[in-house]
Specification:
mainly alpha, 4 helices
């Protein structure tokens, strides 16, 4: 039996880390507008697989990390 909870947590963790790294690219002047857009594209697989609840939770986590660690 496959555990969907652990799969959802793993997928959200990996895509959240990748989104945060893409948000770090926003520090480069020409990537200021395109880096958040590319980070938002990573929410699409989570929403399609596990629903809007997990996608909003991932969005909130990446937004909180970005506010805390990025200027």
């Amino acid at each position: 039996m496959r555990s969907t909870q652990s799969r959802a947590t793993a997928l959200c963790g990996v895509l959240g880390a990748l989104s945060f790294v893409l948000m770090l690219l926003g520090l480069i002047p020409f990537a200021t507008y395109c880096a958040p857009m590319f980070a938002a594209f990573l929410l699409i697989p989570v929403r399609e697989e596990y629903g809007a609840r997990y996608a909003l939770l991932l969005y909130g986590c990446v937004a909180l990390l970005s506010v805390l660690f990025l200027p």
